[in-house]
Design a protein that fits this description.
The protein is built from six helices and five strands; from the N terminus they run ααβαββααβαβ. With about 150 residues, the chain is an alpha+beta fold. A five-stranded mixed beta sheet has the order 1-2-3-5-4.
């Protein structure tokens, strides 16, 4: 029975095991520190996992706690609604042989802001790295605070 439970709840179906409540609490505390530090730097910040991020007002730094066992605190830049909508429209139309300028611009903004977020957080004493691009795009992974 335990073997079956392990297969069903484990990675056999692509479901990541959840982190313990203590780990999630520590990640939430770290995410709050990240938000405060980015706000101190004058950046618009929101907790995507707490506040949601489907409305146009959620442009700026999006801080998210990934509750999976291998997760962490992620920070990504979300462009303004106009640029996001233009990029999505181009992607939905498809059929282009080279990268359209609006899509290239959107990707450039997201990448440059990820670089800036990583630099700002590192300067403030956080341990940062690039997140898995296949899972989290250009998000910055915040692993902790230097002592």
């Amino acid at each position: 029975m335990k073997e079956r439970e392990k297969r069903v709840g484990g990675s056999g179906f692509g479901i990541s095991p959840k982190a313990s409540p203590d780990v999630i609490a520590a990640r939430n505390a770290l995410a709050d520190k990240v938000c405060r530090e980015l706000e101190r730097g004058g950046l618009p910040v929101h907790r995507g996992d707490v506040e949601g991020d489907l409305s146009p007002e959620t442009s700026g730094a999006r801080v998210h706690v990934d509750p999976s066992a291998g997760g962490g605190v992620l920070v990504a830049w979300r462009t303004g609604e106009d640029l996001r909508a233009a990029a999505v429209e181009v992607l939905e139309r498809g059929g282009f042989s080279s990268i359209p300028p609006v899509l290239r611009h959107h990707e450039t903004v997201v990448q440059r802001m990820a670089d800036a977020l990583a630099g700002i957080l590192a300067s403030a004493g956080f341990e940062v790295a690039g997140a898995d691009p296949y899972t989290h795009g250009r998000a910055v992974l915040v692993m902790g605070v230097h002592a």
